[in-house]
What does this fold into?
Amino acid sequence: MNSKIFSVLLVLISSFLTSCSTTKKIQTLKPEADLAAPLIYEKETSFLSFPVSIKLKDIEQQTNNFLQGLIYEDPILEDDNIQLKVWKSAPIRLVDENGKIKTILPLKIWSKVRYGKSMMGYDLYDTRELYFKGVVTLIGEATFNNWQLQAKTEFKSVVWEESPSINIAGRSLPITYIVDPALKYFKADIEKKIDESIIKAMNFQSNVLDVLDKISTPILVNKTYDTWFRINPISLNSTEAKLKNETIFMDLEIVCEMESFIGKQATKKFRKDQIKLNRINKAKDQFNASLIIVSPYLQASKIITKNFEGQEFTSGSKKVIIKNVDLWHKNGKMIIALGMEGSINGTIYLAGIPKYNDLNETIYFDDLEYVLQTKSTLLKTANWLVHGLILNKIKSFTTYSIKADLDQAKLQIAIFLDKYSPTPGVELSGSMGAITIDKIQLTDQAVVATIKTQGKVKVKVEGLK
It folds into this structure.
């Protein structure tokens, strides 16, 4: 055999062996990522209901802090023959009496009393200084109006430790007829002082508005993916205050919008001067919250790649394994790039829409199909991969769990419901219902799941400082 014939045979054998090789290199066109449309998050109108309970003892403590020392003074003697100075002599006590606030106010009184008369152009008067003590009782009905807890106190009685009297010429003469009428001059002042002290002690406006201002500041919940959460208070509702068993009860209800979004931090919407306090008969007993879970493509790629570990996809003598997975967004769908080795070497591309399975808390891809160019290439070079059986098996391994993300979302909410104390004397506790996925959306970098939940929250006010 001459050398020319041998060379031709060698080429033919080489071509034959190559055509019979079990490995093929495929060249598919990569679908380039594009920019996702800006996400629009629905604003949920939420009602954060706060059943508030305030111990009468705490109001008593605050009232005593505000009402100190001299509480009334009448410096003029000539108009009614008496000068008065009235001090609080001991701590005020507040008592629940049939649903009304009974105020017991111990007083110390100094008075200068003038007695005698004017005759024939002469003033025949003498004066005496007196010190005596008594206990004044007032009754008020607790109301919550214009951000303030009020008592609407009315003077009811005074009990003297000793009957007011003076000693003249060795005789003790009662002057109750002078002192008791004088009470009418300072009882209105005492009523006003008690009411003002309770209002100062229990004026919620500045505290509530400061809290609303603080919670309305957008919170960065995921720095890597610029994920923000914002509460926008709209108004505040309250029920009427009721006194029972030494405790004042009322329900406060914040009407607000809860928003989640990705991107640049938005400005704060809340304005203190626009918040109105409204009276309602009954507050809603549940809060509604709409939050988001961000599942980055890189994280999801790692999970799905792990799903494919040790898996072979076979058809007769042909088989492939998936070595790596990449994800990105294009035209409102998720592109899944599968890098494979075996009978076929290269990368194939699938496209699908992510959906949520609430039974097993997983993301799966609905209508997952090969992209058009990949399918066309496979039909020419490896049509066995196009068969529905193989595609369905591949599809089953692209499902991934977001249970850990949901658990983290629950944990974040639970922190604020587990005896959370934003300020001394105020404790917040409550419960949260099940979390449900409302919708799945795509961004340039992540799958975003909007979640909804409901719950109950209670605020306990005790030991105010």
Observations:
- The two ends are 110 Å apart (CA to CA).
- Helices lie at 3-19, 56-66, 176-201, 205-215, 297-307, 372-381, 388-397, 403-415.
